[in-house]
Amino acid sequence: MPLIDTPATTLNYRFDGPAEGPVVMLAHSLAADLSMWDPQIAPLTSAGYRVLRYDHRGHGHSAVPPGPYTMADLTDDAVGLMDALNLPKVHFCGLSMGGMVGQMLGARHGERLHSLVLCSTAAHMPARDIWEERIRTVREQGMAAVAPGTLERWFTPAGRERLPETVRKIRKIIENSPAEGFSACCAALRDMDLRDILFDIDRPTLILVGEQDQGTPVAAARFIHERIPVSRLVVIAEAAHLQNIEQAETFNRTLREFFTEPA
């Protein structure tokens, strides 16, 4: 996969789909990489979209600058990637940490977006001590120490039983994530507060949340929905955090329908 320099770092990215198609830009969660979006590629590209995926700084094959990072850093990376690839406008879809980037992108760079999809995300993460503990744990014990708890939050018990190979793949991605990049992004989530900027988002926005999401629950999605006037909230049944994987068919159908709706 190619690497590209942005003003602040070097990012790994990948294009799929027709070169002339409208671009859908996908931003993954903490402790994941761009392969998290594999279930979305065929449905989107077959519908004529050009799909751009990338690894956040500190993740996958992107560079790992010294931390801590901020949500503004991660958002600037997304804009920098769009600039480097000469993309004036995209449909942006982010999940979890990617959705936090999406919120700031929509508020500060709305002119760069056709539409915005915010999945399994929140505008504020109040439990600061949880992030401090995760940073300490990975620095002392490595990423394998946080993998079991992460998978429990990311999939429902039924999903873990139904998709064992997928869960094993995701576990490997978590364990292979750079500890420094994970810790630096944990600091960004720990310090993030996007609540006051939500009112500035004026792009058509779809908010998706898994019915059983523990980390970014339905209440967090509803909070965002109530503050973005041009938004729609969809709760996906029988899904936890990685709704795009656990209920891929419903997720993909909802995404395609949203992109084809009149602005």
What are the main properties of this structure?
263 residues; alpha/beta; Rossmann fold; 11 helices
Describe what is shown at a glance:
This protein has eleven helices and eight strands. With 263 residues, the chain is of the alpha/beta class.
Which SSEs are present, and which pair or pack?
Layout: E1 3-5, E2 10-16, E3 23-27, H1 38-46, E4 50-54, H2 71-84, E5 90-95, H3 97-108, E6 113-119, H4 128-141, H5 147-154, H6 157-162, H7 164-176, H8 179-191, E7 205-210, H9 218-227, E8 231-236, H10 243-246, H11 248-260
Parallel strand pairs: 3-4, 3-5, 5-6, 6-7, 7-8
Antiparallel strand pairs: 1-2, 2-4
Helix pairs in contact: 1-11, 2-3, 4-8, 5-7
Can you give a write-up of this model?
The chain has helices at residues 38-46, 71-84, 97-108, 128-141, 147-154, 157-162, 164-176, 179-191, 218-227, 243-246, 248-260, and strands at residues 3-5, 10-16, 23-27, 50-54, 90-95, 113-119, 205-210, 231-236. The protein is 44% helix and 17% strand. It has a single domain, classed as 3-Layer(aba) Sandwich (Rossmann fold). The two termini are 33 Å apart. Helix 1 runs parallel beside helix 11, helix 4 runs antiparallel to helix 8 and helix 5 (147-154) crosses helix 7 (164-176). The longest helix is centred in the first third of the chain and has 14 residues, at 71-84. With 263 residues, it is of the alpha/beta class. The protein contains 11 helices and 8 strands. The mean pLDDT is 97. An 8-stranded mixed β-sheet has the order 1-2-4-3-5-6-7-8, sandwiched between helices.
